[in-house]
Amino acid sequence: MRKLILQMQLSIDGFAAAANGSGSWMVWSYGDDWTWDPALQADHTALIASADEILLSRKMAEEGFIGHWEKMAANTANPQSVFAGHIRDARKVVFTHTLKESGWPNTILATGDLTEEVKALKKQPGKNMIVFGGVSFVSALIAAGLIDEYHLIINPAAIGRGMPVFDKVQGILGLSLVNATAYPSGMVVLQYRYAG
């Protein structure tokens, strides 16, 4: 069975975005300049290469996630182009209750129950699946126990108030630490496996 991997940047105090939705505190906020350490860039690219399907919320898709990475993939002079190419080539699954058809290339819609849709996707052949966000979508996946592996990129910034992703968890979410890697920029990647 395929794994569902969450890759998400968090502040050191556990927020995925500021209260107003801003990610300006992130070391890399998905702009044209990839300001991460080369080793973190390589690790991040290897992670996306290990998946052939990306799960997205309707909101994230409509905000331009797919188009952004297609544009980055086309610019081979940009160091993000290889990473972006993996996103472009992966099948995207957009979870929605409102859209009737996909307007994006290599993208299908999932319109049923979240848990049932994800469980069905996990049973399909292929590589692992990855989810990048947004906050509400990821919170729902975590609360339903659907994330198998967490790759949490901890930024060296505390923001005080913001949007958490673990706020819908009922009881205790048991995780096992697989790896912890620190990078010169102050970023730390914590890799956990769901222990449930």
TrEMBL record:
Domain Bacterial bifunctional deaminase-reductase C-terminal: 2-189
Listed PANTHER family: 2,5-DIAMINO-6-RIBOSYLAMINO-4(3H)-PYRIMIDINONE 5'-PHOSPHATE REDUCTASE, DIHYDROFOLATE REDUCTASE FAMILY PROTEIN (AFU_ORTHOLOGUE AFUA_8G06820)
GO biological process, any: riboflavin biosynthetic process
Pfam families, alphabetized: RibD_C
GO MF annotation, one: 5-amino-6-(5-phosphoribosylamino)uracil reductase activity
InterPro entries, sorted: DHFR-like_dom_sf, RibDG_C, Riboflavin_Biosynth_HTPR
UniProt entry tagged with the keyword Transmembrane helix: yes
Protein name: Dihydrofolate reductase family protein
Keywords: Membrane, Transmembrane, Transmembrane helix
Species classification: Bacteria, Pseudomonadati, Bacteroidota, Chitinophagia, Chitinophagales
Transmembrane segments: 129-147, 171-190
